[in-house]
Amino acid sequence: MNLIAHNKLITFNQKILISAGLDDFSSNSVTLGLCEASLRGVDSHGIRLLPHYVESAISGRKNPKPFFQFTKKFPALGALDADNAFGHAAGMKAIEHCIEMADELGMGAVAVSNSSHAGSMASMALKAAREGYIALAFTHADSLLLSHNGKRPYFGTNPVCAAVPRKEQEPFCLDMATSMISWNKLMVYKSKGVELPENIAVDSNGYPTCYPEEATCLLPAGSYKGYGLASMVEVLCGIFTGMNFGRNIPGMYTAPMNRPRCLGQFYMVMKADGCLEQKQFLERMQEMTDQVRREPAQDGEKVMLPGDPEIEESKKRLKKGIPIDDDTLLEFESLSEKFNVPLLLIDS
Amino acid sequence: MNLIAHNKLITFNQKILISAGLDDFSSNSVTLGLCEASLRGVDSHGIRLLPHYVESAISGRKNPKPFFQFTKKFPALGALDADNAFGHAAGMKAIEHCIEMADELGMGAVAVSNSSHAGSMASMALKAAREGYIALAFTHADSLLLSHNGKRPYFGTNPVCAAVPRKEQEPFCLDMATSMISWNKLMVYKSKGVELPENIAVDSNGYPTCYPEEATCLLPAGSYKGYGLASMVEVLCGIFTGMNFGRNIPGMYTAPMNRPRCLGQFYMVMKADGCLEQKQFLERMQEMTDQVRREPAQDGEKVMLPGDPEIEESKKRLKKGIPIDDDTLLEFESLSEKFNVPLLLIDS
Which residue, A130, A317, B81, B107, is the most exposed by fewest CB within 10 angstroms? Predict the structure, then answer.
């Protein structure tokens, strides 16, 4: 197993992204997003995306030095034109604006236009939650979700994310694709050469498949319910923002790398003390958290809240290091050489 | 089949609720909610609840003449103490406040405390969407959702609802329990004497069951994803509002009928023209709607958006009348006699 320490990983990511032309805000945002996802065990949205991201900066799909334009038609509802920024950078900028609005008005929403793949939405939502706010975060994606009753996908794997502060340091965090798994998670199965669980994906004929290389689209989580949630996310991120929607969204891995994807994102941030005092809210969140973790579990299992597996994994990886799969390691070595940035793995 | 015309049903509901002591706002809100749910084919949350609702007004669980207290610690984030009102009445009042706030600030959220069962959340969200706003609506419920990896339920079937205006008259409307089906839908199976589909519910030993009378709790939609969404809804409706949460919520059908349930609700309403002009937004929503409805479907099926089945059913029921199951008819006849309100069915 190839392992790298979290702090070394951050340095590597940051230097590579700066070398690829990203400005400080963009490289910091992307680095935080990718490295935190990997730390939390969300490998699908972690550092394995770095080579693709570097390519997207160099080839022109993404703007490494965006000029963000923030406008507000209404005090509590803003719009951020992200100038084809990296998705993480656009998202972090949007969350900053949301927090300012929430401080002033109790609540603030920002719709992002002209952005790109935002990685794990938890990166943005957790930023607000760590500062004591409740955050909801959404983005859309190219159509890879089999429509309910349909023969092909229309919506993307459009994730829903919510982060909420509590007494313990790490916030509650739900971050879920509305498909059974995300496409990037399928890519992880593919690169590991592992079969998919049943009822996750279908092939080009619409038949269920367990072979990731045969999969052309994913099944919605909870049948028509995941499909319905994906359509709601498309409204907020695609229709509302004026971006592409449905089958017109350029594919992350299929569109030309010089073509901006013009993706939308949508964030809502609100004060956690809208009804109670902040302290009381945090205590009640902790009480719910503690109660759930004590619930009687099936043999060999634990009852957990969303984000709990990621918190456990973070602790382990902070100690032992973050694994890099062989394919990603090869690409990292090539980036290391190309940009003359040392890649310091943990000696095994 | 016992059928009643929609307008006759409205009159019957309204007169019964007024007779049971409800003030005008409460009886109008509950009538609209129940009759609209039945019109849209959502029988689980429709007029079959009327007898239970009447009982809850008479026995003291709900306040038929509530004194609503609306306060705002922040301009865009309000709190409505519903004084143990009927859930529909509290929800309608909250949506009115949200709309006022959205008009002023672009966005408004209202957390409801001290309310009760709100029926179909679509009633409230559709009100805002019909006036041109985007609405999100949430409520929590007594713990009936089997925890992921757990032996018993902690969260409720906590629904997620979103309604969005478009060019055509009826808005887009997603309204889903985070369980495979709602508990009230299970009650419909029970009263019809019909078996449940597989993987919907479990019995008191935690084993899957298809017999509604053996079911003690429901499986989450999309496994841990529905469970995760339910926990998010609990945060907004239970933790944030200061209400009961988790296993401390009095059961709709199991708690004493003189005990207020003290449920929370949460609403967000925003202007649809935060980025684009209203006309353009409505056109784009319609374009997505039309595209989805034209997507290639599996044999004998149609690809639809959330709310489409309900729109089709509404048209049919508006013409042919709304069905009343035999159990509900008996109860309606008894209410009709008790309160001296004529029940005018369609002659069959």
Answer: A130
